[in-house]
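If your schedule permits, I should be very grateful for your opinion on a structural question. The matter concerns a single protein, recorded as an amino acid sequence and a row of backbone structure tokens. Could you please explain, in whatever detail you think fit, how the structure tokens follow from the sequence? I set the record out below, with my sincere thanks for your time.

——
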Amino acid sequence: MCQSVKSSLVFMSLVFFSLVSTMDMAKSAVLINGSFESGSFAPNSQNTMTLNIGATSMTGWTVFNDQIAWIGTPNPFYGLSPTSGSRFLDLTDYAFGIPYGGVRQTVSTVPSAIYRLSFDVGAYWGGTSKIRVTAGDLDAEATATPVRPQVHTWTRFSSLFTAIESNTTISLLGIQADSSNGFLGLDNVVLESVQGSAAVPEP
């Protein structure tokens, strides 16, 4: 076999294994406890636990900016219920008005790989609930508005983002509660790999 053919075969092998390896790495990005089911849940009489800034009671997540409420079912809050599992978050906690709380989680990613981030935003009283989401090159607002006041509504948000570094922090921060400042729900956070980085070695 001539040297040029050997070189071509070696290069093709490198390309193949590089692409397979990168795709596997991109798929390996894992966000854990997206439905807030696991952790050290110690509820009060309303089946709710207030989490302070810096709390890591929910497996995989850290609370930031302000307190939040980790709510189980059943609960006495006007029929509020999760979209997945038996627990969900209210980023207002028991307080009215700003500031609101948020949660974040850092996951391993492949630079330049593309991912899809999805989650549910909850509203109840009327008006619009808003969550600011940042991850990689993504900086957006997710909203939910009830069809009418006192009708619990979950709205699914989904967006693509490109990873910039090998570690990506997914940040979900409440920025507006519904019209009475009574509820700002979050549940069912999902991270999916869409496309791996296409980096190929030079021949």
